[in-house]
Design goal:
With 186 residues, the chain is an alpha+beta fold. The protein has a single domain, classed as minor pseudopilin epsh domain (minor pseudopilin epsh fold). It is built from 2 helices and 9 strands. The relative contact order is 0.13.
Length: 186
């Protein structure tokens, strides 16, 4: 009986040693896994980069639409002119919504009183207004000048990969944000 227990323990010990050595990876398996991971990374990184650039264009377009909507709402609320103007370095470096009349001050930068300011220095974008360099809403929420539109595009990559966005302000003063199908905005 004592011999049987010793044999059983020896068999169990050998089996557990074999299992312990069989739990690791062989060099071939490790190299295969690394090769598969490298191929997947090589395929996904350009797609991810394009996705990020596209999202930056969309975000800038939605931010500009928001600023125009805010300006229109403030012009209606205050019954006075409100302007959306670019940063001193251009639209791609931000814009401000301002009025020279009104009791609410959210951000002050000498004159005029800034209601909202977007200072996202985005060197990877181009933001081009079709007409004029300032959008002004009168007290009735309508534009004081002709209908305007903005083309927001990625400064990197082609327009087939990353289509530009169009922010168009109609006659009533409402901004509309759409993707461009032709590569430019009306």
């Amino acid at each position: 009986m004592h011999v049987q227990i010793a044999q059983h323990v020896e068999l169990h010990t050998r089996a557990s040693r074999r299992g312990a050595s069989g739990r690791g990876f062989t060099l071939l398996e490790l190299m295969t896994a690394i090769a598969v991971a490298s191929i997947l990374a090589a395929i996904s990184i350009p797609m991810y980069t394009s996705f990020v650039r596209n999202q930056r264009v969309k975000t800038a377009a939605y931010d500009l639409s928001y600023a125009l909507t805010l300006a229109r709402g403030e012009a209606l609320k205050r019954n006075s002119s409100v302007t959306v103007s670019p940063d001193t370095n251009g639209w791609k470096f931000g814009w401000s919504v301002a009025t020279t009349v009104g009791p609410v001050t959210l951000f002050t930068n000498a004159t005029p009183t800034y209601l909202d300011a977007s200072n996202a220095a985005v060197s990877y974008l181009t933001i081009t207004p079709a007409t004029g360099n300032v959008v002004t809403y009168n007290g009735s929420g309508r534009l004081t000048s002709a209908v305007t539109s903005f083309t927001i595009a990625s400064a990197v990559g082609s327009t087939t990969q990353i289509p530009p966005r169009c922010v168009t302000v109609d006659l009533s003063g409402l901004p509309r944000n759409t993707a461009s199908t032709s590569g430019s905005c009306p």
